[in-house]
Each structure stands twice: as structure tokens, then as C-alpha cells.
Fold each of these.
Amino acid sequence: MSANIKVDENDSGETEPVQNLTDGFHLLIDALKANDLNTIYGVPGIPITDFGRLAQASGMRVLSFRHEQHAGNAAAIAGYLTQKPGLCLTVSAPGFLNGLTALANATTNCFPMILISGSSEREIVDLQQGDYEEMDQLAIAKPMCKAAYRVLHAEDIGIAVARAIRSAVSGRPGGVYLDLPAKLFGQVIDADTGAMSIVKVIDPAPAQWPGQDAVERALSVIKSAKKPLIILGKGAAYAQADEAIRHFVETSGIPYLPMSMAKGLLPDTHPQSAGAARSLALKESDVVIMVGARLNWLLSHGKGKSWGEPGSKRFVQIDIEPREMDSNVEIAAPLVGDIASVMSSLAAGMTSNWPKPPAEWLNAINEKRDANLARMAPKLDGNEVPMNFHTALGALKNIIKERPETMLVNEGANTLDFARSIIDMYQPRKRLDVGTWGVMGIGMGAAIAAAVETGLPVLAVEGDSAFGFSGMEVETICRYQLPVCIVIFNNNGIYRGTDVNPTGGAEAAPTVFVKNARYDKMMEAFGGIGISAETRDELTKAVNDALDSGKPTLINAVIDENAGTESGRIGNLNPQSVVSKK
Ligand code: ADP
Ligand code: MG
């Protein structure tokens, strides 16, 4: 888009175009659109307010948030869902820093996004002369993301956007920072020169095939296994190689465990799912095939008690990042490449009469799984008032079963842990949660991006504490009339609502909130639907109504304040003083 910028004044004081010109604003829009990046999540302000207006005028979707962190989380989830970098736009210094949390989180999770931030003038920042919102943003961003670039000349915008896209999506995906000083936006250049500077990135994430020797090594390790196990991670979900993964799982006959965001890659009700026999599968397996999952804290680093006898495992690991191999334990068969290519190489080496794992192993897993599911079932059917985590989640489990296309967002401590194991997922990339850091605050950003990117109904299942981090974005949800239903598991506090001030003083204990708060009223303030649900039937009806109507809805689900455990499932990471409890 060239702007017919008028630069000459005639005698009557009117301006006339003398040359076809463009500027930084328009070149950035052209560069993004040329690469099919058409949605921006951000917060307007100096110096990017006009950019947002011009972008919207050009037909881009520009979604304004109330806080940059949530715009950034939305961009990250957009990247995860689409394999194109999600765009987040922020103002300088404080806005940039707010967005940076999301950029670092995206990088940690291997989600592609680009944080585009306006910044103050280089000359003043570098001499530290105290500019408006002065900050050396490029230097600060660098260690937090995969790549960081600054653009000083308008004719470099095209190539900078191309570099940013390629950096975000090629190899292991991640976050990229693009620093655009205020002056750049107004820089004027010849429109034809500008048009020629736009780069359309060809094949931004090239296929990476594993070597044939690596494929053969992996197949021979898999074939030798007596108790094989597949672990699917969110890298497998990101790869959008759903059919190839299903083919590998089913041809091999090997039981699999999905990491939380890989749930639904195959339905959780699949006969080979070992989800409900997780402990046994990890402990007893002899060969573990990691597919787009890291042996980080979420898998106890691949060692220790939960992994059984030391030396009892051999690992096959499929990952696009070579340095992931041997990060925590020895990898017997590294398969470096993108999951689609690796899966097709493995398939080529696996005949249809590929030997199935020994029946003894499959039976052991199935028995354990069935016993665990049978033990859990009655808890999920309860009708207690007030509700507890199991009864409320039992209701939501049934709803997702009937509506498997729903995008599920989930955060909290107990609300997260219980929902992850209780709510079955049936389709790929439908579950969005706290990810690699286990971070609170992704909720509303993820819910907004899920609605915007997929057009599907969204159910956000939130602890009352977790919701608080991004709660103001309910206004954003109402403003854009997004089909988002938020259910808040309100147990009056963090972990539980029952702590009291040990001094006997009136000041509230650090983990409790206002008792019997009515979060539903927040939604009504912005014209959305707010409902307080005290029983399972009320909850079920309210969620079904919301998903049917597509209207922004917030349901305050009243949960027993005694329900819940300290830090949920990861209480072991929260040091407790024994001295103070004497
Ligand atoms: P989870 O938390 O579900 O276990 P992680 O985020 O720990 O998943 O791991 C995801 C892994 O997937 C990362 O190591 C990343 O490099 C890898 N990955 C991402 N995309 C691809 C892809 N297209 N092909 C192969 N590996 C990928
Ligand atoms: Mg709570």
C-alpha cells in the first residue's frame, strides 16, 4: 500500500502529490500483509497509536487489550494454533516490559510470536539523556527470546519482518522481538523503492528430514522393546502432523501418554491411551519414545523414583532441536527433524505386520487404567452442594464429550491439575493451558486468541486466583463479542479459602480472597452474561446455554472452600517451614 503522501503546496495553500511516497507505517503494514499476517494483538499508545489505526484501515484485524501481557499471550497462542507467528504490538518501556513476559513465555513454550514494540529515540537512549519512556529495549529483550532486531531505516522494514518471521517459525519455534523507534514510523521514502523492499518469505519453516541411519537406529531400539511407551508433547500438537502421528501410534500398537497440551491429538478414550495409568507406564517402561516433548521438570527430568530403576530405560527422542538431545539423560536414538518428516521416515520403515508389544505389557497398562478410571467415576458423578473440584469438573467433562470441538482453556492450581486428568479431549490442539512454566495469567489471552483464530466456542476453566491475573480482559471479550464462556472455580482463595491470620489479627491471611465474591457481576458490568452456579445442574445448564448462544458469559461456580490442596499436584516444589509449625 503506497500512501499518496502530499508534499507540495500550491499558491492557494492546497497540497498536491508530486511524488508517490510511502512511510514506515505503511511499509510495516505491507510487509506483514505480504506474509499473510493479518491479525495484531496489542495495546495502543505512543508511538504506535496511528499504526493500529492505519492497520485496521488496511483491512487487518487489530484487537486492543487492556494489558500487554494478555495481548502477548494471545499472540503466542495464535502462533501455536496456526504455525504463523502471532503478532503483539506494544508501546515503549512499560508496555514493552509487560509484553516481554509473554514473549519469554512463548519462547519457553516453543510458540512462534513477534513482539513489535515502539521505542524511544536511539540518539537520546544511547546517551542516556532521559527521553520519554527511555529504555534500551533491544538489549533487554535479547536474552528473553530467540532473536531480536532493531530497524533504523524504513527501507529495511521488509527484510526485518522477513527475518523475524523466519526466526520465529523455523527450527524450534519461539519468540522474536522487533524494535521500532518512533522516528522510523514517520520516515518517508519513494513508494516504488518501498514496494521493492517488501520480502515475502518462501518456505518459512523448511522440512527437516532425519538421516536414514538415525531412523534405522530408532526402529531397531523400538523393535527390541518389551515395554515400549510413546510420550506425545505439545511439539507434536504444534506440528499438525495428526494423521502421521496416529498412523505411527496405531501401527506400532504402543501405549501412549499425552502431555497436557497434546491431549486430544488422539482421543483420550483411545484404546492405546495410557493416560490413566501414567505412573505405572513411566515406571515400568523399558523404551520411551518422546515425540515433541522435553524431559524437563514436567517429566521429572527423565530420572528419579517416578522413572523406576536407574538404567532401566532407553530413550528415542524426536525433536527439531538437536541440542534437546541428552539434555537430562542419555538419548539412545536421537531423531532430529520435524515431526511430520520423522513420522513419515519411521512409517516407511515399519511394515503393516510390525510386531505389536508383548500382550503382558499391554494388559498391565489396560488393567491399571481401567481400575483407576473405575475408582474415579463415582467421585465425578456426585451432586454435593457446595460443589467440589470433582463434581464440577465431572459436569464439564460431560459437556466436552458432547461438544468435542470446544476450545478448552485451563489454568489454576487444583483447577488445572484436576481438569487435566478429568476432562477428556477428543480433537488435536483444543486444550490450551499453563504450559512449560506452569504460569498463571494465560487465561483470557489464550481464550481470546482461541476464539479469534478458530471461530469456535471457547470454555475457559479458571481458578479464582488464576483468573485474577487477566480478569480485566473480560471487557475485551465483551467488546469484541467473542464466544467465550468463563467458569471460575471460586473457593475463596489460593489453593483453599480457609487460611486464617495466625496472629488472630483482622488482616486477611495471604492466600485468601473476599469470601463469596461474585465474579459474575464483573461480566455484567460490560454487557456480558453473568451467572452464579451453586449446584451441578445450574453449572451444566449455564455452560450449555453459553456455548449455544456464543454470548460472552462468566459463571461463578461456587466451590467448597475446604476443597483443594497446597499448590495442587506440585506441592513438593513449594518449600514448607517445619520450624514455624512447631
Ligand atoms: P510438553 O510440555 O508437551 O512436554 P515441550 O514444550 O516440553 O512439550 O516440548 C516440545 C518440543 O517439541 C520442543 O523440544 C520443540 O523443540 C519440539 N518441536 C516443536 N515443533 C516441532 C516440530 N515441528 N517438529 C519436531 N519437534 C518440534
Ligand atoms: Mg481458588
Note: Residues 109-110, 172-173, 233-235, 238-239, 259, 261-262, 292-294, 296, 298, 319-321, 324, 338-339, 436 surround adenosine-5'-diphosphate (ligand 1) (CB under 6 Å).
Amino acid sequence: MSDNLYVDVILPLAVKGTFAYHIPPGTCVELTPGMRVAVPFGKRKIYTAVIYRVYQTKPSGFEVRDIVSVLDAKPVVTDLQLRLWEWISDYYMCTLGEVCNAALPSGLKLESETRIIPNRLPDQDELLNETERSVLDSVSRTGGMSIKQLQKAYRDRDVMSLLKVMMDKELLSIEEKIREKVREKILVMIRLPGTREDTKQIDELFNKMKRSEAKKRLLSAYLKLKGDKNVKDGGEIEKTVLLRKAATRHSVLKEMINQGIFEALEKKVPLREIHAQEIPLRGNKQPARLNDSQQLAFQAIGKQLKDHNVVLLHGVTSSGKTEIYIHLIRKTLNKGKQVLYLLPEIALTAQMINRLRLVFGEKVAVYHSKYSDRERLQTWRTLLPGGDQKDRKIHIILGARSSVFLPFMNLGLVIVDEEHENTYKQFDPAPRYHARDTSIILAGLHGAKVVLGTATPSLESYYNCITGKYGLVELPERYLDMKMPEILVVNTREARRREAMYSHFSLTLSEYISRALQNRDQVILFQNRRGFSSYLECQDCGYVPLCMRCDVSLTYHKKTSRLKCHYCGYSEAIPLKCPVCKNENIMMKGFGTEKIEEEIALLFPEARVGRLDLDTTRTRKSYEQLLDDFDKKEIDILVGTQMVSKGLDFDNVKVVGIMNADTMLNFPDFRAHERSYQLMAQVSGRAGRKKERGLVIIQTTCDDHTVIEAVVKHDYHAMYSNQMTERRNFNYPPFCRLISVTLKHKNRELLDGAAEKLAKNLKHHLGERVSGPEYPLVERIQNFYLKTLLIKLEKSSKLQEVKSLVSIEIQALLRSSPFKSLQVIPDVDPY
Ligand code: ADP
Ligand code: ZN
């Protein structure tokens, strides 16, 4: 191989650009982009880097160092992936290194600080060379070592390559930074003691139980379940499943256990597998037969995809969109192509994987950040060309936003379920990408098609349909002609006046809840916690101070005692009297899920209550377990934030209560009304999906608000046209594009100076398009003060040019001496 061989590599760091290295002579692998090399960086550090370019002319102007070693014999990143990384880095104004860092599972990223831990003992007849044995010993003895320490101990060795070989053999693995917390659930399993298994014994049992119908039911249910379950695991059936199937009470089972008929035992199950284990990986179920309107929609999608790359499926909640996706997936697999199925929330994958596994079995794999590094690496490697497909071929990836980074080989279809969800956007850290929009680019690279699905399209996507950019297919009826839920609006101000309010519960709401509890139906109560930002409201007339220029409510700033607009910076003193009714009854608003949970306990002491929000899912019970319990009717009332609104499919929810629509409607954000509609329509959609018509109670003081009216009438189109008028009038997306630039520093004065300077320089080029600087909603995070500039660009502007101008100004600012330690964060299409 030539002596003059150089590579440009991408380092998985926030550094700008690529870095050139020399390939020492004697390297006998043919190097191509996408392979990894270990390279020195800075004084002592070593990183894995991804080759971006291979060439032969010596770069001039700086010293070029040698790589340490080559880590792969074949690329682990494909060309198309590199092109997607480029697009993300250009579009979202971040470095290739940041994209690389987000994209690669950590198993592919070794660096000096990475800790290596022992993974398994070698088999007796497994041959290890001396060094390997010695490394394994040291790592086992110490319980784990960093690569840096290993490099010190094995100075004359190529430690990176050595580790790579040993990790491939699974002798060693990388210590995962975020150790998975309690991820097990204890299930109570029921079985017949061994001696009772044969038919004669069972007949005897039945005879003995002549008088107890309930007991007989339990026994037959057990035998039935066991017969269905073609798995060899000692015939254990989960207690709750058994009780539900037999429709008997726990006391009956308990008596049978006491009599020695059944045995109970506890089994620990990893949470993620709870669903997977119930449904064997058979995957031979035929997809559901589509009804007429679903069939028409399915055909229309196919037809629209002939002239559009993207089609929006706008189908009301429970219209059977998922069933249509399943047919689309099957069609794509039949063409020998892969499918990416994106979901906005990790927890939703648990429900969805069941539905997909029934039909597609092992062809589906799940990919998201709650899976261990090892599992993610495995999926990555399986997908690579010539990857380890011996055990398993993956055709469908079900995942959260990071799955757009996987090495797809011939993607045919991307499904973006609940496309309106803002969780598709990554806020922090960079790359601040939107997975829906990125997946459209990904599909474009593969020549694949995209189906966006939702009951409540984002204004952007629906607008793209109206302008003809996307195809549109609408499905306005629920499956089985289930009626859309009936929606009642309770004016809480009036209710309070009539003394028909107990704290946050109107009489109407509590009556419906208690009726539901009596009928053993379930209830969901929705309290949007984004109400943390307080606003003012007149208790007599309901007046909320709004910004005159931006049509958002003003935020109460306790420290300065002022009301402020977070979009344009307008501020005013706190009014002593209501400017409308002149009464002095203005109050600060905002309450959370915890409070609601507390009040339910007082109102309905017998109800079993679960709370689903960021706090409860981070700690004790995880999201999946809560949903699992709710699904099994072990919880009567589920209280939650927007997490409960996402595409969950429960059969027994009769009543949905929206505790306070005002907090959503008055949230200081130009998307507040769109989001409110989406949240209310989605959470309403959880009611009455299977049995009888559901009922939704909305508590609000704005009962004549156009958004509430649209929710009550299930009229997306009314909301759409109202909101579009406002967006046009106030010039917000989709009529313009937004780029925000946030500056961060610990010193407030310095930050103010920097922000003013950047604003001035940008305004010099962009004029009125730049607004701010403003303190964002949360002014200080972890001791860093924040200030934000907002750039509004007309649709026709040359986006790329503006971005490079913004970058140049940011770089210039960072070069001037007082601002070196400043952080400046551009965010394209901020949400
Ligand atoms: P969406 O995704 O539109 O909210 P789903 O696909 O979840 O709706 O459908 C709602 C419920 O109705 C699901 O439990 C689903 O299994 C059932 N369903 C919908 N369409 C069919 C069909 N054609 N055959 C059988 N069941 C269906
Ligand atoms: Zn304003």
C-alpha cells in the first residue's frame, strides 16, 4: 500500500469539521469511508473516529499525525448514513462530530475515559493469547479499567485493536454510564403442582369442585390458557391474566392455593419483556381485515405515493391507522424492503411491539435509548451489509427518534406515527434535529416513501398537504362505527360561583368519575403540568393579560414583579385591578398532577390511583409498568400529564377528565392553541375505544374559546383555519421559518453584552427579522443565564446563506476576547 495515504476523520466530539491523519505504511487493510480508526487527539487522548474521506495528497499547513490503529475490516457506517449526517449538520447548524456522537451506539465509540469491564469468563477450550489473558485478568481483578489505564499498563501494545477483538468475542464490554435502574417487575405466577398434571387427576379435581362454579371456572381458564401458550415453561400463568380470564375474584384463587390445588410463585421479569413474553414470537397472524373505509384509505395512500414522497394519513383516534400501517408494512416487506416505524415516545413501543410481533414476529426489532448499549450495538451490526444476519433478519425497526441513525440498507417505507408530537424534536444537546423531518430526508436518500399519521396533524404537515407538497388521505370515522366521545364543557368559574366545585373537581366531573368507578370502568385525568409558568387571571371575569403584539399570554415574573412576553420582550407592570371588570381579584394560576392525585384520594378513597408524569416515571414505577397495570385494570384512575395523551390503546376507559384547559390555552407560545387542540383531542381519543361511547369533561373558564369549540365538535378543520389566520397575521410558521440563537453564560452582565452585540450584528444584515435578545421562560439553568434571539425568515429566503451568516457572526463573537467562555447555541425550527 502506498506510503502517502491520508484520511479525514469525524471525531465524536463537538469540534468543528473533520481532522486529517496519516496512515502509517504497513497497514494492510483497504481503508474506506465509514470504517473506524483510533486516533490521538489533544495531548494524551485517544478516540475512535469515523473515516470520512481517504486520499493521497499530503495536507499542508499543519503537522499530520499518524493514526493509532484501524478498528474495522469493513465500514460500520454506510455512505448514505454519512450523507444523512452531513445534511443534519448543515441543516441544524451543528458539527459532524455532534451528529456522529448522537448516531453511533456507545459500543462503537471507544475513548480514553471509556471504562472496560469483564463480560464473561472464557470457555474451557477457548484459546486466548497471553496478552488477552493478561488483560482479562487485570480487568477482572480491578472490576473495570479505563482505556487510558490499560494503555499505560500495556504500553507496547495496540490496546484499541486488542480491546476491539476481545469485545467482539464478548469477553469484555463497555461499562454503561447510565446503569439501568430497577427494570424488573415481580409477577405472581400460578401453576398446578407437578402431580396434578395428568387428565385423570384433573377430572378428579373437577369432580371435587362440583359445588363451586368459580373454582371450576378458574381451573378451566387455567387449562385453556396453558393450552394456548405453546411455550415450555412449566405451565405457569400470570395471576392477573388468569383472574381476568376466569372472571373470578382473588379470594377464590387464594382458597384454591390454600387447598393445595394451585401453587403460586414469584417470577422476576425484565420490564421490557413483559409484553414480549406474553406473545410468542410467532408472527404468523394475518393482518386484520380492513373494513371498507380503511381499505379505501389504504388504496388511496398507495395511489398518492405514486406522485408524492410523503403522504399524511389524517384519521381520527381509533380509526384503525395502525391496522393500515400493518398492511403498508406487509406490502413493503413483500418488495424485499425495510421499514422504519417511528413513535414519539419510548413507552409506546411496548404496546406497539405486541401488535407488530403478532404479524411479523422476529422481523421486528425495537431501537431506543432504554435498550442497553449491547443490544443497540447488536441491532446496528445486524443491519449492516453482510452483518450478522445468521440468527435473524431484521426488516422492521420500531423506534424512537434516534432510530433514524441506523444503517438501513434498502429502506422502502418510513411511518411516522403521531407525527404532530413535539417529542420528535431533540432539544438538547446538539444535534437539535426533528426526527420526522430528518426521516423524510433519510427516506429521500433511499428512494423510500413516508407516511405520516395522526388524528391531529401539525399545522405544518397539513399545510404541506394543502399546498400539494404532501399527499393527503383522511379517515373520519372510528373503527366499528364507535362514536367519537361526547364532550361536556364545564365552566369552572360558574361552577365555583354555584359552589359546585370541590377544589379542582367540578361536581359534574366527580359525579361521572364516581359512576364510572361503580361500573368498574376506568378514568383518565389529564393535567398539563406545563402550567409551571404562572400567568395571571381575573377571578371574576376570567381576563388573562396578553401581549398586544404576539397574541400569547404574558408570564408573571415574581422577581421583577412584571408581566412579560417571551417572544418580543414586551413587558408591563402587574395590574392592581382587572382592566376589564375593574375588580381587584387577580390571581396567579398553576397547579400540578400531584395535587390532583392528593384530591382524588380524599374524594374517592376506594379508588386505585396511578400517576403518570416525569416524576413518577423517573423513579418508582416506570412508565411501562404503570401502563401495564392500567391495561390490566389494576388501576382505576390514571392521572397524568401529556404523557397520557399519546397514542395509547386501552379498552375500558369510559371517562376522561381534562382538569384545566386554561393552562394549555394560555401557555406563552405561538403553538399554544394548536398544541391545546392536539392534546385535548388526543386525550379524548383514549375514551370509549371499544365498548360504549366515551365521555370527556373539559374544565375551563374559556368555554367559548374557538379551540374548545373545535374540540367539542371534533372539528380539526375549524381549528386549522382559525390558527392559520393567526399564524399568517402574526407571521409564524408555517408562513416563515424560525431560527433561535441562545447564549449562555454564568455572568449576567457579560451575557447581556454579548447578546446585544450579536443582535446588533445580525440586525445589521437581517434587519427586522431579528428580535430579542430576551430571557427565555427559564432564565437560569444550572447557574447559567440564558438569552435568546429569534430570527424569522420568509419562506423564500435563502436559508443556507442566512445560516452561514449566522455562523460567521457567532464565530466572530466567540473570537472576541471577553466572550471566549460564552456558549452560543443555534436551533433551527425550534419548537
Ligand atoms: P388508531 O391507530 O387510528 O388510533 P387503532 O389502529 O389503534 O387506531 O385501532 C383502534 C382499535 O380498533 C385497535 O384495538 C384495533 O386493533 C381495532 N381495529 C381497527 N381496525 C380494525 C380491523 N380492520 N379489524 C380488527 N380490529 C381493528
Ligand atoms: Zn409579545
Note: Confidence is low (pLDDT under 50) at residues 177-182, 272-280.
Amino acid sequence: MKQIVFATNNKHKLQEIREIVGDKLTISSLIDIGCTEDIPENEPTIEGNALAKARYVKEHYGFDCFADDTGLEVEALNGQPGVRSARYAPGEGHDSQANMKLLLENMKDKQNRRARFRTVIALIADGKEQLVEGIVNGNITEQPSGTDGFGYDPIFTPEGFDKTFAMMTSEEKNSISHRGRATRKLLDILKNL
Ligand code: IMP
């Protein structure tokens, strides 16, 4: 069976993609291939980070692979936090409460609350590099609502809904989310490998 590496150790993302792919492909994680170092994510764009992670795995470990990167792009903030979404608030990064608080502060006087989540997946397979993208448009709320999900979910309402991502079941969120959309495009490519 063909093997492909997903450049992540996020168990949730791995489980999700393994369930969808079934037994057609073996999806390995970074730990599975003995990659325990932090892969640099210092590029100025979401595309750049996704590609950098995939290229790192290909160059250092030799496997065909794919890597994802996601950002929340807010119109009134000129696309911020964007590629810096995980590290928006000062500190170590990945502090969702601090990131949301800072974003709501920066949005205090803004009438235009339009925003979008954007995921890019970079795939390196059969000697080719390919990028796929998934976008969900929506609005930044005035205050957090809901307890499910992660990251900025409590302050993002997808277009056509009157509840935040954090008020949705994971099935409901996956069916419309940026990552769900990008993953389905990736699977169309993987199925034909
Ligand atoms: P990553 O590239 O998937 O690690 O995402 C970068 C950052 O974007 C995360 O740390 C979260 O803050 C945010 N993010 C990514 N996906 C989502 C989502 O589905 N909901 C809310 N926040 C997200």
C-alpha cells in the first residue's frame, strides 16, 4: 500500500484524514517517521509555511508528504492575524484566549466585521508540488459564544449561520469549514495516486 506522510502530530487532524482515506493509503505522522524536531514555520505567507513544512519532510526524510497551514484573515485589519494566527498575542503562542481577546480589542470600533478562514495544503508526491486551498467566509462576533472547537471558533460566525463555529458539532463544522474544504480537494488528488 502506498505511504504518504502528513507533516503533523495533531491527533485530531490525523484521525480525521485517516477516517476519510480508509485503507487506500497509509497516512504516517511526523512521529511515525522519527521526526521529532520543530519544523520551522517562519514564512510570511500561509502558502509559504505549508510548502516549507512539506519540503522539509521531503528533503530530510525522503517521503512523499503533505502539510497544512491555516490563518484567520480579517478584512478591517488588512488580513491580520493571517499567517500569524497562532502567535497573534504576545507570548509563547497558541494561547487562544489571549489571541481572541486581542482580536476583539482591535475590532472594537470596526463596523466591517467580515473575515475568512483560509487553509492551504501543500502536497509533494510523484515528484510534483501542488497546492490546494479551502476558504470559509464569515463575520467576527462582538463577544465569544460556544464551548466546542478550538482557536478562534467562539468569535467566528460562518456566512449563512447565526451561530459560531464553537456552537456547532464537529460534523457540522467540518462540512463547511476551510479545513474540510481543503481536505476534500486533497483527497481527490490522493485517490488518484
Ligand atoms: P494551524 O496552521 O492549523 O496550526 O492553525 C494556525 C492557527 O489558526 C491556530 O493556532 C488557530 O489559532 C487558528 N485556527 C486554525 N484553524 C482553526 C479553526 O478551525 N478554528 C479556529 N481557529 C483556527
Note: The mean pLDDT is 94.
Amino acid sequence: MDKIRMTTPLVEMDGDEMTRVLWKWIKEELLLPFVELKTEYYDLGLPYRDETDDQVTIDSAEATKKYGVAVKCATITPNAARVEEYHLKKMYKSPNGTIRAALDGTVFRSPILVDGIEPVVTNWKKPITLARHAYGDVYKASEMRIPGAGKVELVYTAEDGTETRELVHTFAGPGVVQGMHNLDSSITSFAKSCFEYALATKQDLWFATKDTISKKYDHHFKDVFQEMYDEEYKEKFKEAGITYFYTLIDDAVARVMKVEGGFIWACKNYDGDVMSDMVSSAFGSLAMMTSVLVSPSGVYEYEAAHGTVQRHYYKYLAGEETSTNPVATIFAWTGALAKRGELDEIPELITFAKKLEKATIDTIESGKMTKDLALITKKENVTVLNSQDFIQAIRATITAALEA
Ligand code: NAP
Ligand code: MG
């Protein structure tokens, strides 16, 4: 069988710990035998980030802008313990934060559904993709403890010195106050990424805020989305057979529980933080969540939603067998390969990516799975495999599928 050729390289961002180990096995067993893999490799593993003073992360983000599609392994975001463990020169920023800032993108998280692992919400039949705005609001707020009676105002001083004031509250006693902001540029990028991703994946888009209470702040988000939709996307959505739907956040939360899924739910920063954890845990497993960063200019970076699975890595280093689930990392690769195939018009690459996804799901549905899934499946007679044997089982399934 001839290997599938690629024309443009994928930006490959390697990572840390157990996911770095899985990364190598996935490439060796599930990709290299079938595809003449063309990648531009960036080692975002912590030791090399430290060696390059994190320049490698910046370079990988620039390469992503250049080529348009990246696939990323999970990476360590250093804290004090990691600085000590890896003898780091400093406490580097989160690579995901650096890449997100460079691409000005929005992160879309979707669950991978398999028979036998049922969502807690029984009527969810299709994935719900959560899009979280990643800038501002309470995450970049200024706060003050108010010690006692007095007046708090918002003051805007224009460049010419003119002031506009808005009373927050006249305090009769102690309390707290918070001032937060967002930017038209960021809200616009967020809206654009959401509309583009809805079109690219042919799914309805929901957006919700609390505009009835927040008549200027949240209302502005609603207006930015609506104006962009009316001006740029109404016709395109109609042609694609999808809809844009705005509602109040509390109404959205109530409705989400009653629908089948199969749509994108765009959330402001805080709502997205809270709702993505609810949606992912209700779908079953963090190891089955994929994540893609989409920039408003249409650049894509695919990854798993989980971290480097540190606890498993130490067992692996101690020579113990681990049953770490590689599914979300496999889907990061298939997402990236399919997107590359779409952009470069290589239908075989798209077909291969879809077949590998199906082989992965079929393998689980046949009863072969990693421990995390075995613990939550309704299936009986399951075979719990270690990571390597599970990847081997997927290889057998994809090989049979490609020969059929
Ligand atoms: P984690 O890697 O997400 O793992 C937390 C726990 O979830 C694991 O101990 C494991 O539970 C379970 N789990 C997650 N993924 C799994 C998989 N593929 N298969 C089986 N079980 C899985 O989070 P962490 O261990 O708290 O964080 C480790 C490092 O990841 C941190 O340094 C953090 O900075 C980094 N991180 C990176 C990203 C990213 O690059 N996108 C995201 C989050 C965290 P059991 O131990 O019970 O089996
Ligand atoms: Mg959270």
C-alpha cells in the first residue's frame, strides 16, 4: 500500500510527560505506517523550552500562523514545584496562553462519543462543543476592599483629559468592589472565530450572555455578534443550513439539558470556564475531550483537552504498566491531518483521518479500552489494555479497515 503524501507541513508541537510518550507511540504505530508525515517539529517539552528561554514556543506559534495548521501535545505549565523539579531558569508562562495570545484565537472543546459510555444527561446524543472567550472580564478585573462609608465611581479619562463618571455605589459601611473590562477587538475576534468554526463544522451556533441585567457590558457582546452575523454570516449560514441563536445565559443552561447536542455553545469567559467543566464531566471523561484553537484569520491548532497525566508518567518511569488513554491525542492528530487535507485538497488524507477516528471508536466499542473508560462503561466483558496494547489494537482495526 502506498503511503499518503502531504504537500504542506503540519506544525508539530511535542510536549511533556505521559502525553509525550503517547505522542511517539501514536506516530510510530498509527501515522507513520500510513502517511508520509510531513511536519515542522517544535519541541515544547519543558527542558527545551528552558534551554531556549521559551523562544521555541513563540517560534511554534509563528510557524502556525505561516502554515495554518498545528497539532500540539499537552505541556507542563510550570509552577514552583516544576521550577525545582526541572531546575528551570524561571517560571515560564503557559505555552497555551502564549500560543493563544499570538493567534488571538478561541478554544473549542468537544467530547468524543462512543457507544457504551453514555453522557449523564441521557438525551445528549451528539457532541456539544463549548467555545470560551479567553480575554478579560473577571479574569482581568481590578478589585478593592472598601473599608467603610464612602463613594465609589467609575472614571474614564479620555486622552484630551475629559472625564466621564458613573456612580458604582455610595457605601454606608464596608464592602467590596470590582472593575472589569473587555475590548471591541477581542470580542470581535471571538465572534469571528465562532462564526467561522460553525461554518467549518456545519453546526448551529448558540451565544448567551446576561444582557437584560448588564445593559451596556453584556449587551455590547450581543450587539457585536448580531451585527457581524447580519453583515457577514447570515447568507453563509443559510447556505450551509445552520442557524445562529442568541438567548439569555440562564435560558441557555436550561435548554442545553433538554436538547440532543450537535451544536456550538459560545460563552463569555467566566461562563465558559464553568460550563466547559460541567459539559465535559457530564459527557464522561476528560481523556475523551478534544480541543482546537481557531484564530479569526482561520488558523487551527489541535490538541487534547487534558494535561500531561503526571501521575501515570511517574508510574511509567518506575517501570509500571500504565493504561493512559490516547484517544484525545489521536483525535488531535486526525483533526489536524483532515484540516491539512482540506486546505491542500488531498482527499486521501481526509479519508485516512476519518478512518483512524472510526477505527479508534470501533476498537473501544468492540470492548477493548483503557482503564479510565472501563471504569465508566456500561459494556460488559471489556478488556482493559495498557496504552501500548490499546494503540496496537487500534492499529489492527485501521489496518483491516484500510485493506478492506
Ligand atoms: P491531567 O494531566 O489532565 O490529569 C489529571 C488526572 O486525570 C490524571 O491523573 C488521570 O486520573 C486523569 N486523566 C487525564 N487524562 C487522562 C488520560 N488521557 N488517560 C487516563 N486518565 C487521564 O492533569 P494534571 O496531572 O493535574 O496535570 C499535569 C500537567 O498537565 C500539569 O503540569 C499541567 O500544567 C499540565 N496541563 C497541560 C494542559 C495542556 O497542555 N493543554 C492542560 C491541563 C494541564 P487518574 O490519575 O485518576 O488516573
Ligand atoms: Mg475551569
Note: The chain has a mean pLDDT of 95.
